[in-house]
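Pilot study result, target chain (328 residues):
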Amino acid sequence: MAKKNYRWQPPKYTVDENNKVIGYVNKELNNWGKWGADDEKGATNYITPQIVAKAAKLVKKGKVISLMTGLDRSAPLLRGAFDHSFTMTSSDTVLKSPVLPPGLQVNDDQIVTPTHFTTHWDALGHFAWEDVHYNGFWAGGLASIVGVEHLGIQNLSSTLVGRGVLLDIAKYKKVDRLEPGYAITPKDLDGAAAMEKVEVRSGDILVVRTGHMGWWYSLIWDKSEFWKKGEPGMSETAVPWLHKKEVAAIALDNIAAEVSPHEHPEGRMFPFHIEALRNLGIIIGELWWLDDLAADCAEDKVYEFLLVAPPLKITNGVGSPVNPMAIK
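Predicted structure:
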């Protein structure tokens, strides 16, 4: 009888009272323990008060550019459902409602949305590999129906403000948008930085433009091609580059940050998320709108700015919509 290969095997480690694995060794490039055994902020620890204060001095014109796609049904919806509805309208109160005092009209609304819909950040609790999250937290006991016990997005609510740097890879490659399947390598990142005469530094929030989101909005009726062909995004070969530069977070104008189809289809899925988010604690942003920022940077030749992009304080959540603001 042939031996069966079971997908899951009992782990060779134990778990302590703080939900940390004991006996598991992460042999990949990682930042585990760099900021302490209980760290839940990851590479945002690189963003010091001194870096924030210095970034504030980049504001020269007082110009604010929103990098959000918009929280509405026109944005790409990968999973879950989005709904924006009104619970009370001024029309109702004018015409028929006896609830409010005469003469008073009120509009109230509500949204139901996945936290990873529209422009958002991924929390460190979003991805695990081999049963283990960033910094050695055990996946088997991290999350429940009420959220994650550790690595929640609320830990980042007072960070992700600092020096932003736009690397416009589409412009560097002299195209309107990168083609689906194009993997952004360290050579691309260095080339774009040299073209823009900007230096990527420790604690930076790196904003990488592919032009992919512009393609979505240019497709008026049939958007099926957008979903079928994959997308340009980060190569896993860029992870050591991000680590060396001590990048705090990286955001792209695509759906999943990393290239699709993946460079090595026979390997594990979402390698960039595993290596950057899970191993290094680099926060990942997705579905950012970067065309307006790119146009402004091309005009004034300034590719660094104060970036204000803290997530919503969603207790025990693993993602958050955000309205990032580049201030120049």
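One observation from the pilot: The chain has a mean pLDDT of 92. A full batch analysis is planned for the follow-on phase.
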